[in-house]
Amino acid sequence: AGIGKCVAMDLARRNARTILACRSRERGQAAVEEIRAATGNPAVLLRLLDTGSLASVRAFASAVLREESRLDVLVNNAGVTGLPFAITSEGLEQTFATNYLGPFLLTNLLLG
Question: Per UniProt, what is one GO molecular function of this protein (predicted)?
């Protein structure tokens, strides 16, 4: 939704192979189908990612590096605000993990 979906739509319109990294399979698949229909680009894919989980970030990065021959653009757009204080299963504060640590780790893992 929001800025991320708009960016994905624009990239797909430019005929880019576009991977949507989403926490929710249902919402992500709905966005993939909408973007494919609006752009005519079949190369819009869904991969699950929760940037608040470093294990999820590592699994996502590993899959992208294994499945994709190249990565030209990375848009780190995920973020949360206003959540109650919570600690992730990895012992990190949830908002900090989601907004900073996860995207930082993802970027560094994808740099190779």
Answer: oxidoreductase activity
